[in-house]
From TrEMBL:
Pfam family of the protein (one): CENP-O
Family (UniProt): Belongs to the CENP-O/MCM21 family.
Chief location of this protein within or outside the cell: nucleus
Protein name from the UniProt record: Centromere protein O
InterPro entries referenced in this protein's UniProt entry, alphabetically: CENP-O
GO cellular component terms attached to this protein's record: Mis6-Sim4 complex; nucleus
Record organism: Mustela putorius furo
Cell compartment(s), UniProt: Chromosome, Centromere; Nucleus
Keyword entries, A-Z: Centromere, Chromosome, Nucleus
Length: 182
């Protein structure tokens, strides 16, 4: 640009090109941001204060990390809603940063269907996998040991795989998501 340069940051998750953002930088002492399209919940001011004047490559790298992680979390939540909406009991609840997700889903095993409630929290905003996962079941009856094993295995899956892959793996393991919700 006439004042400096504009950087376009394109985000992606699992090979899917997602959103693009820009940062228009003015080249003068001190280096400063003129315009940008970075979402307000990304800590741009903090990253800028830390790296913009001393290491522009690291500034852009950190910004890319936050943006890619946000786009990846949003992509997973969107895929869960679009591809597995029929299996969710109620809405997927999420905040704008997609770092807190909660939903209820039903899994059928041995002819019995139990609704599980999942709460996923992403404390590290530069990651696409949750740092805290809680899976509980709805109802007052105690779970059988096999259901408790399922609940624990679901927690482990949510820690280790993207949301849509978790639901795909439920189907592969022979678990059936409850179709009565359709």
């Amino acid at each position: 640009t006439s004042r400096g340069f504009c950087v376009c940051i394109s985000t992606a998750f699992e090979g899917n090109l997602l959103d693009s953002y820009f940062v228009d930088l003015v080249i003068q002492k001190p280096l400063r941001i003129h315009h940008h399209s970075i979402p307000v919940f990304i800590p741009l001011e903090e990253i800028s204060a830390k790296y913009l004047q001393t290491n522009i490559q690291h500034f852009l790298f950190c910004l890319c990390e936050y943006l890619n992680a946000y786009a990846g979390r949003k992509y997973q939540a969107d895929r869960l809603q679009s591809d597995f909406a029929a299996f969710l009991a109620g809405p997927l609840r999420r905040n704008s940063l997609c770092n807190l997700l909660s939903f209820t889903y039903k899994v059928e095993l041995q002819g019995q269907s139990v609704p599980f409630c999942a709460r996923l929290r992403y404390k590290d905003l530069t990651t696409t996998l949750p740092t805290d996962v809680t899976v509980t079941y709805q109802g007052t009856d105690a779970l059988s040991p096999s259901w408790e094993e399922q609940r624990a295995s679901h927690e482990n899956l949510f820690f280790s795989k993207p949301l849509h892959q978790v639901f795909t793996s439920f189907a592969r393991k022979g678990e059936k998501l409850d179709m009565s919700l359709v």
